[in-house]
Amino acid sequence: MAIKVSDPAVGENDDYPGVTEVVFRLSEPASEAFQGALGEAINERNVSYRSIDADSVSFNVDGDDDAAFLKGVLEASIGDVEDALG
Question: What is the top-level taxon of the source organism (predicted)?
Fold first, then answer.
């Protein structure tokens, strides 16, 4: 599958004013099974995500989280899921 992650788009969360949201686009659509496994892989790294859908993953950040760090977590998590699902 080899899903790639875009550079982050950073902006204010529409649902929570004052909260920053970081969104990463995925290069290929992710199946529901992949999305679920990706959520588990991210959580295993003690990172919380806001949402995962077929073409993007978003995180709410409060200043302690860094977009480059989150991109690394996401890429490693995608690698784990791709290895597990074959």
Answer: Bacteria
What is the chain's pLDDT, residue by residue, as a tens digit (86 residues)?
A: 589 999 999 998 888 888 899 999 999 999 999 999 999 999 999 999 999 999 999 999 876 568 889 999 999 999 999 999 87
Q: What CATH number labels 9-85?
A: 3.30.1360
**7-26 CB burial, b ≥16 within 10 A, e <16:** ebeeeebeeeeeebbbbbeb
Structural tokens at position 42: 């991210």
Which residues touch 26 (CB under 8 Å, ≥6 apart)? 3, 4, 5, 6, 54, 55, 56, 57
